C-alpha cells in the first residue's frame, strides 16, 4: 500500500500534500462487517450478559484481505464482544482515505500508514497513532537474479519502477543513503500496481509489498521452466535491512475524542481485542485465512494464506509488546518523511509533528491487561509457516 492502500485519492493526498479536507470524504458506500454474534430485535443494540455493547466503527485502508486479518479474527472469535464492543469494520477502496474518514467523524478508529496519516495531520486532520500494529515495513524492491541488484547502489543505471504518490520514499531514501541521485543515476519508471512490467522486462526492479505483489510474481509461470517462478529467481531489497523502512499499518483515533475518559476506556478495550485477534492469527494462520476468505476477499486461498503468513512476520515477534510505538522507529519515519524528496522534489511532510501525533498510553494499558490475562503479547517463539502458492494465487 504498497500495497495498494495509497491508490486513488490516497496517492494524490501524499504526493501533493493536499489538505485533509480536500481528500476523499470517505463515502458511505463502504462495506460494513458487524462484530455482533448476539441476536437482537430490530432497532435494538447488541447485548451481552453484562449489558449493551458499545458500537464503534473501524475504517480499513483497503479492501478485505489478510492485511487486516487480526481485526476480522477479533470479530469472528468474539474478542471485541468480550470487551463490550460491537465493532463495524468499514471496507476501504480506491476512493476511501481512512484517516480522512476518521478525522471527519465517519469512524472511531482507522488503519493507515504513518507517513500518509502524518501528511493529513500536517494539513489539519486531528488524529493520533494509538497503536503501531505493523512493527516492520513490508515494502520490497524486486528484480530478476540476472540483473545483479542486491543493494540500493546496484540500482545505478537501471530502470527502477516505483508507484510514486508517497509509496516511493523508502526507495528514494535508500538510494540517497547509497550515494545515488534518483534524478540522475537511475531511470525512474511509473509502475502500475502489479508486476507485469517486471515480468515482461520493461523495468529492472519493481516495488512490491512482500505480502501482495511479491506473491504475484511467485504465482506466475516461468516460460523457461513451464512451472511457477521461485524465490531463487529473484533478488529483493528489504528496506528494513537497509535502514530506511517507514512505519506502516497503525491504529489511529481522533485526538479530541481521546480527551474523553469514556473514549479512552473504549480505546484501551479496542486495542486489547485487536491484539488478541493478531495473536490468534499468529497461532492459527490457516483459520485466519479462512475467516478473511469468508468475509468476501477476492484474493485466492493460497495468496491469502501467503498474505496472512507475511503479515504475521510484520507484527511478530514484538519484543516491547504488539502495538507499542517504538520512538526510534517513529523518529526514523519522521526524518525520512521530512528529509527525503521524491522525483517532484516534494517531501511527505514539511515539519516534525507535535507530541500529540502518537501516544503509548493506551497500548501500554492494553498490554498490561492482556499480560495479566495470560495473552502472549510478544510472540517471542513465533515461527512462520511454509506456504505453497498456487497458479494465480488460487
State the helical fraction: 25-40%
User: What gyration radius follows from the Cα positions, in whole Å?
Assistant: 20 Å
Number of domains: 2
CATH topology of the largest domain: D-Maltodextrin-Binding Protein, domain 2
How many DSSP H or I helices? 14
Q: What's the SSE pattern?
A: HEEEEHHEHEHEEEHEHEHEEEHEHHHHH
Low-confidence stretches: 1-44
Task: Trace the largest sheet across and list its strands.
Answer: 1-5-4-6-15-7
CATH superfamily of the largest domain: Periplasmic binding protein-like II
Biggest sheet overview: 6 strands, mixed
N-to-C CA distance: 22 Å
Number of strands: 15
What best-fitting shape do the alpha-carbon axes yield? globular
| Portion in beta strands | 15-25%
Mean pLDDT metric: 89
Structural class: alpha+beta
Q: What's the CATH class label of the largest domain?
A: Alpha Beta
CATH-scheme architecture of the largest domain: 3-Layer(aba) Sandwich
Commentary on this structure:
The protein has 394 residues and is an alpha+beta fold. The protein folds into 2 domains: 4-136 and 246-393, 3-Layer(aba) Sandwich (D-Maltodextrin-Binding Protein, domain 2); 139-242, Periplasmic binding protein-like II (D-Maltodextrin-Binding Protein, domain 2, 3-Layer(aba) Sandwich). The protein has helices at residues 9-16, 69-76, 79-82, 98-103, 114-122, 169-177, 196-200, 213-218, 239-242, 261-283, 285-294, 301-315, 327-339, 361-372, and strands spanning 32-34, 47-48, 51-52, 54-59, 85-90, 109-113, 127-131, 139-144, 159-162, 187-190, 205-209, 221-222, 227-228, 234-238, 249-254. The strands form 5 sheets. It has a 6-stranded mixed β-sheet. A 3-stranded antiparallel β-sheet has the order 11-8-14. A two-stranded antiparallel sheet has the order 2-3. Strand 2 and strand 3 form a beta hairpin. Helix 2 (69-76) crosses helix 10 and helix 11 (285-294) crosses helix 12 (301-315). Mean pLDDT is 89; it is low at 1-44.
